[in-house]
């Protein structure tokens, strides 16, 4: 059975400020990206990943605030954090 790996693309019309448009064009001209669309999609992917990380950090901060105070030293907290990250 044939399955397609094509991603559905939605066409959008967006407007850029002159400095942003010049930057986008320079990135395409440098051959780092094949088109402005590819670059904008990459920037959006990066922003989405960054938002996931921010959300994770915020959830950990909320957990920490709810758990109260600790008697651990900074070095003990750091060591415990490292242990949890390796799990």
How would you describe what is shown here?
This protein has a domain at 27-86. It is elongated. The chain has helices at 18-29, 36-67, 74-86. The longest helix is centred in the middle third of the chain and has 32 residues, at 36-67. With 87 residues, it is mainly alpha-helical. The chain has three helices and no strands. The model has no long low-confidence stretch (mean pLDDT 90).
Q: How would a crystallographer describe the biggest sheet?
A: none
Q: How many H/I helices?
A: 3
Tell me the radius of gyration.
Answer: 22 Å
Give the helix proportion (percent range): 55-70%
Form type: elongated
- Order of H and E elements: HHH
Quote the average pLDDT. Answer: 90
Secondary structure category: mainly alpha
Proportion of residues in extended strands: under 5%
Number of strands: 0
């Amino acid at each position: 059975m044939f399955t397609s790996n094509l991603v559905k693309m939605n066409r959008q019309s967006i407007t850029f400020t002159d400095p942003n448009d010049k930057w986008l064009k320079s990135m395409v001209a440098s051959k780092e990206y094949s088109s402005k669309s590819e670059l904008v999609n990459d920037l959006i992917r990066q922003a989405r990943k960054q938002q996931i990380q921010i959300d994770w950090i915020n959830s950990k901060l909320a957990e920490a605030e709810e758990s109260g105070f600790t008697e651990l030293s900074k070095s003990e907290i750091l060591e415990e954090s490292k242990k949890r990250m390796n799990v």
